[in-house]
Design a protein that fits this description.
The protein is built from eight helices and 22 strands.
């Protein structure tokens, strides 16, 4: 049988006007299209903030943006014959970028939300080669596009388990977004008073079904393997990134609308051994390695009296008095990132907000080692190729 091309279009100015979009996850979402194994699917996706920014946007627009509209996803698509226990292999065939993208620092969000608070926006002009921004003069970021969010529908069991563990985390004081009817789409399912208003999972965290994984290895040419958790799989995508450093540290990459083409293959019975998505590819990662770089390192150290945000909810009196924590990868990452931002500020003459954005879209955070107790090591790698002039410290 010849493969077909299934198109899932984009209509209306916002996701609320688009019958092919949703921004809450649940098994009750109805398919907007159907495809067979071997078919190609073309998704017309919306940007992560649902068209709230353009080239004229400023920090004031970031401060006023509606976070309940994050993220609008396109789909789901029913895959013929897909049953729980199967696997769905999704190959990223092509990503056609929009001409506009943005990176924002939203107050209260991001890895260093207590250090660099925002608001801030970098507006990017995009083509299939590079992104440039007036807010970051002298910087040119090469296209390395991938879906920030891609997944299948969760089953009833996965929705129940996610609600249970996320509600428990919220009660303990952890940073988690619970179901919120305001701004939820489709309204008939998730708005106030709708049947599943209290169960519409937010699209911010990734889960067993995939979702907002923000893994730049999932680029053109790679294949992602998903466990099928619900009849028909329910494939969807959105939140497409033009480029991103491993970490997406300020909370956003170079965000854009895009046309995403994928090819699907159903693998009967193969999902029983996949609890979370797997990725396979060829030379994609090697091709994106920088020709020149500058790196800094971090270990789990902090100031005396400081309680890092990721530990505040545990309310331990031990944390504040220590300057060195044991086997804390998050703190080591924080240390490396702050050192990299300081280096960019000192050597490139940029503000901390500009440096934070560069780190989000270009700096790769990598684990050096996880065995030399108490100090895990994280490296922050900055590709020097993004700077237009060749002379660098």
């Amino acid at each position: 049988m010849n493969a077909k091309v299934i198109r899932v279009g984009r209509t209306g100015a916002t996701a609320a006007e688009d019958k092919n979009c949703f921004n809450r996850l649940h098994w009750s979402l109805e398919p907007v299209a159907r495809a067979a194994s071997g078919d190609y699917i073309v998704f017309e996706t919306r940007d992560a903030f649902d068209n709230q920014f353009d080239l004229s946007s400023t920090s004031a627009h970031v401060e006023k943006c509606d976070l309940n509209r994050v993220h609008p996803m396109t789909g789901p698509v029913y895959i013929e014959g897909a049953e729980r226990g199967d696997a769905l292999a999704v190959t990223i065939v092509d990503i056609e970028p929009d001409s506009y993208g943005y990176t924002v620092i939203v107050p209260g969000f991001g890895f260093l939300r207590d250090v660099i608070t925002g608001p801030f926006i970098a507006n990017w002009r995009l083509d299939r080669l590079f992104a440039v921004s007036e807010q970051l003069p002298g910087v040119r970021v090469p296209m390395c596009a991938f879906p920030g969010s891609i997944g299948v529908l969760p089953g009833k069991h996965e929705v129940s388990e996610a609600l249970k563990r996320e509600e428990a985390l919220a009660k303990a004081g952890g940073f988690v977004l619970l179901p919120e009817p305001a701004g939820a789409i489709p309204e008939r399912l998730f708005a106030q008073g709708a049947p599943w208003a209290s169960e519409g999972l937010r699209t911010i965290p990734p889960r067993e079904n995939g979702g907002n994984m923000d893994i730049k290895a999932m680029q053109i040419g790679t294949t992602i393997l998903f466990p099928v958790l619900h009849e028909g799989a329910g494939l969807w995508t959105g939140d497409i990134h033009y480029a991103q450093g491993d970490g997406e540290v300020c909370g956003t990459a170079i965000e854009m609308s895009a046309r995403v083409t994928v090819k699907c293959e159903l693998l009967k019975g193969a999902g029983t051994k996949i609890r979370f998505p797997h990725i396979k590819g060829g030379g994609q990662l090697k091709a994106t390695e920088p020709s020149r770089f500058y790196g800094v390192t971090g270990i789990p150290v902090k100031r005396e009296g400081e309680v890092p945000p990721h530990l505040a909810y545990l309310d331990s009196p031990k944390v504040a008095g220590l300057t060195n924590l044991s086997e804390d990868l998050t703190l080591a990452t924080r240390d490396a990132l702050i050192r990299m931002i300081d280096w960019i500020v000192d050597n490139r003459g940029m503000t901390r907000e500009q440096a934070y954005v560069i780190a989000a879209v270009a700096v790769d955070l990598r684990i050096g080692q996880l065995v030399d107790v108490p100090n895990f090591v994280v490296t922050a790698i900055l590709p020097l190729d993004i700077f237009e002039e060749r002379q660098m410290p």
